[in-house]
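Saturday, quiet lab. Running sequence design on the structure tokens for the scaffold JK sent over.
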């Protein structure tokens, strides 16, 4: 029963987070909405456990080792990401921004190194210390509790929070790696070589044109049978074409506010170019046929 309920609730959580991510609001407002959404779903999960309990110790361990950290990791991820984005040099050079993301990547690596023994336990999915690590009755407050968090203190275990951070930091590394793929072109960097493969193709048009393409793909549901979010399409375009689209949702809002040109100016330009090319070939073939007849 716990597995079914938590799976459905997790899908609900991810759907809510995707909806917020796609909204045309500034990031501070998004962060508030992220936290509300995560807190709401965490509370539903906690209340379900408090009302129904566990059928045995095995189920209890599984919940605190796998299910609860998975939910809570989203809170850590979005708040760590927000803290990182506040520090990105807003008016710096590309080199300054690249160096910033390299430092962030190093910081993320240090976290895994600082918890090496537990991280190896996490990666190997060992279970010999699960009773000590993931049963609330065995919790010992050996370090300060995280402040301003949405979880119920009755759900604290010795390593549940650490496991949630592992999940969150994996996501942060994906985000940082994607930024480095777009920003960094130094072949001597061991960090970049470990993460990245430089792109030989790059976008040389306006970024807003790629936003038209991204939303065109999204609204026509041509990728993954329509089971994909705008942000996924934007990330795919960024990775493929070596361009940082920044706040794609803000650019789409700018596109919607166009008054002196079409909302789909570039898509229409593409359509016109393709049509003209086909017509030109048809005219050439017709002209060639005419010449052949005259001979």
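Result came back. Writing it out in full:
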């Amino acid at each position: 029963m716990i597995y079914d309920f938590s799976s459905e609730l997790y899908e609900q959580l991810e759907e809510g987070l995707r909806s917020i991510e796609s909204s045309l609001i500034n990031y501070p407002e998004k962060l508030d909405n992220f936290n509300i959404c995560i807190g709401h779903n965490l509370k539903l999960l906690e209340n379900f456990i408090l009302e129904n309990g566990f059928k045995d110790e095995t189920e209890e361990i599984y919940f605190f080792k796998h299910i609860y950290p998975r939910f809570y990791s989203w809170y850590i991820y979005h708040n760590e990401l927000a803290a990182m984005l506040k520090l990105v040099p807003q008016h710096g050079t590309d080199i300054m921004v690249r160096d910033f993301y390299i430092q962030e990547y190093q910081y993320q690596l240090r976290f895994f190194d600082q918890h090496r023994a537990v991280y190896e336990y996490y990666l190997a999915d060992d279970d010999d210390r699960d009773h000590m690590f993931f049963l609330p009755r065995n919790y010992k407050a050996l370090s300060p509790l995280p402040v301003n968090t949405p979880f119920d203190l009755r759900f604290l275990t010795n390593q549940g929070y650490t496991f949630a951070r592992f999940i969150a930091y994996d996501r942060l590394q994906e985000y940082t790696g994607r930024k480095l793929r777009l920003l960094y072109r130094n072949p001597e960097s061991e960090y970049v070589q470990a993460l990245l493969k430089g792109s030989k193709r790059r976008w040389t048009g306006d970024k807003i044109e790629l936003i038209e393409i991204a939303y065109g793909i999204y609204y026509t549901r041509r990728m993954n049978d329509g089971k994909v979010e705008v942000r996924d399409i934007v990330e795919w375009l960024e990775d493929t074409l070596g361009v940082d689209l920044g706040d794609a949702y803000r650019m789409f809002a700018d596109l919607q506010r166009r008054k002196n040109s079409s909302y789909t100016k570039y898509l229409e330009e593409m359509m016109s170019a393709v049509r003209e090319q086909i017509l030109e070939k048809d005219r050439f073939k017709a002209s060639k046929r005419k010449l052949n007849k005259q001979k």
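Notes for JK: The mean pLDDT is 84. Residues 238 and 260 are 28 Å apart (CA to CA). Ask whether to fix the surface positions before the next round.
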